[in-house]
């Protein structure tokens, strides 16, 4: 009876939807580029729900202007891992996995990042795809992998565009300095640098050099291997590498802001120019210019320099902005660093409520003195992160109180 029941039930099943009908329902052209080679995979689907989900994935890719994947059997031998900054995975929406603070990794096929919709089209599991990508990278990593630079820093020497991705395979590098702390950076896709603690200054030099070579940037900040984890090295003042680490972190932050601006509408508000200032003690701070006359999308920098009619009114600690209750910012819906949209502009009395870092006279005098005494621009120097400074009830760190931009670089 069970056999007869199954036989009758099959007869009552609705026919499987064909691809043309599904494409028509979604207003998709039947001759989409790359669709032809995928039809065989579609025809093998034996459940209506799978075919519908397959067509939905095609619609998602087409709607976003993204390419269709190659057939699974063609792609399987070309899967490779790609290391990217964490903000890029958040922005792009491709399938990616977190790796360490500030870093993610994803799978590419002949240089094209895998989109989540590809998994449905292939009928494959993400775990299998990521494992295969790492296997392929290991095959390309056989033999001598690192070279020792004259500075003593070790660098991945393959120069095949996958150098930074090799940080994903810990067993390839974590025994280079037995008994010592291992510090590393992955500044670009072609640079994977490692050094023991005694060579940290040299690691900073090599990292800054790599950031100038024009390759695709990933992350400048120094990472430390702690057990089985990678974490940004927590180097505090007066450690000699604390300030270089701060600058590298700030540089990563400003690079992210630049990318973020590409997804914001310039007609909605102005993007404040983010600059870098350095105190007499050598500490760097991020500063955004806020010009009167139009709304501004303010990121979480350390300082805000207010200007009106090409003249500075002063630079103030951003964290004291809430003291101006009438000046309320609206959060901007955007990936990455937080921004607030401000429509008004503070009056002189309102600015007096903020904690001042430099007066208008000091700012204007500094700019008039020329670029050597002006805040260094993001494109001219390794930029810093929006670290935010706070000490007790005051947002000014104790060792910075009383300092101002007006004395930066002063010659005695």
Q: What radius of gyration results from the CA coordinates?
A: 27 Å
- The 3D shape can be described as flat
Count of runs of 4 or more consecutive helical residues = 12
Distance between the termini: 103 Å
> Biggest sheet, in brief?
6 strands, antiparallel
Count of distinct structural domains: 4
**What amount of the residues lies in strands?**
15-25%
In the sheet with the most strands, the strands line up as: 5-6-8-7-9-10
Question: Percent of residues in helical segments?
Answer: 25-40%
Provide the low-confidence segments as ranges. Answer: 376-412
Global structural class: alpha+beta
- The residue-averaged pLDDT reads 88
Q: How many strand units? A: 19
What does the model show?
The protein folds into four domains: 62 residues, no CATH class; 68 residues, no CATH class; 89 residues, no CATH class; 149 residues, no CATH class. It has twelve helices and 19 strands. The radius of gyration is 27 Å and the shape is flat.
